[in-house]
Amino acid sequence: MLKVPDHQVAGHRGDGGKLGPLVDDSGRFYKPLQSDHRGDTELAFYESFYSNTEIPGHIRKFFPAFHGTKTIEASDGSGPQPHLVLEDLVAGRTNPSVMDIKTGSRTWYPEASEEYIQKCLEKDRNSTSVSLGFRISGLRVYQNSEAGFWQPEKKVVYSFNADGVRSALRKFVSSNLSLGPNVDPDGLYASKVYCHRGGILAQLLQLKEWFEVQTNYHFYSCSLIILYDRESALDGRAHPKVKLVDFAHVMDGHGVIDHNFLGGLCSVIKFIRDIVDEDNECAKCEVNLGLKENGFYKSSTEPELDHEAC
Ligand SMILES: O=P(O)(O)O[C@@H]1[C@@H](OP(=O)(O)O)[C@H](OP(=O)(O)O)[C@H](O)[C@H](OP(=O)(O)O)[C@H]1OP(=O)(O)O
Ligand SMILES: Nc1ncnc2c1ncn2[C@@H]1O[C@H](COP(=O)(O)OP(=O)(O)O)[C@@H](O)[C@H]1O
């Protein structure tokens, strides 16, 4: 049985008669192949990425598994349409908290039309993309069974400045958002989600190591998805994950570092590190996990990070 995903936080949505992704109950996410070059580009990326034997296994895990394409009834009622068949990143989680971070200060790619570049430039300048190297495109934070999710409206998210981004990243790991906007977010889950062994920070550092050397692809307008399970966060099983999605504008890297994405990634890491640095529980974790050396964060060299409590 296909349905519009409950946990989608950004992008084109399939409700209200529009074209958007669908999910089934066996853990698959069906993204419509966009009719212009975007669909072809994204399909070509998945095929290239999963046939590229140079991509290390510990890097593949940052990408949704790819199961080819399938023609299914589209969400907008337009009849059977081809879709990418992907792993549903939140399958099996009851109330996942999810954030979409569009990474890179520049979302337009060199070969784009002047009209498209202008449209992207406007969004990049009017958001934190240019100033911070990334922007939050959407988020959804689970609170409790009574309050449900905190999910600010799109126009609120799009108006975040640097302080808004900082606050949203802290709210993402807080338990008291339902008490109202005047209550300081408690950051209760920061240690379990951001700096936990195998947590978001360690995964981002691992991804950064790859971006420091990979020159095959340039990831324009691509998003980092960060997610975790709040309900089990306090007993150390938050299962925090970093994933990459949206490859509709991935270009050939031509042997050059993707400094646009890498710069944005470093900036995301810095924002999360600042939250971690202020957190007492996290301070213990950093020492235990050896994330820091002489006061500086070092990149993880562990090929597989596990989820044991630190
Ligand atoms: O169609 P629009 O104007 O809503 O723009 C889409 C963006 O929505 P936004 O307006 O920024 O909320 C949308 O952004 P989000 O994923 O919602 O952040 C995508 O960038 C989409 O591009 P593509 O499907 O990845 O090629 C964008 O589509 P295109 O700009 O490629 O048409
Ligand atoms: N494989 C996936 N599994 C679960 N959710 C996904 C997956 N891919 C994307 N999403 C959700 O859909 C949103 C939009 O995805 P994206 O690929 O950027 O679409 P668009 O091209 O319409 O912008 C993401 O922010 C995320 O919430």
TrEMBL record:
Family the entry assigns: Belongs to the inositol phosphokinase (IPK) family.
Origin: domain of life: Eukaryota
Enzyme Commission designation: 2.7.1.140, 2.7.1.151
Cellular component terms per the entry's GO annotation: cytoplasm; nucleus
Keywords from the named record: ATP-binding, Kinase, Nucleotide-binding, Transferase
Pfam families reported in the protein's UniProt record: IPK
Protein name as annotated: Inositol polyphosphate multikinase
Renumbered residue ranges of the record's region Disordered: 1-21
GO terms assigned for molecular function: ATP binding; inositol tetrakisphosphate kinase activity; inositol-1,4,5-trisphosphate 3-kinase activity
Top enzyme class: transferase
Organism: Eucalyptus grandis
A GO biological process held by the record: inositol phosphate biosynthetic process
InterPro entries in UniProt: IPK, IPK_sf
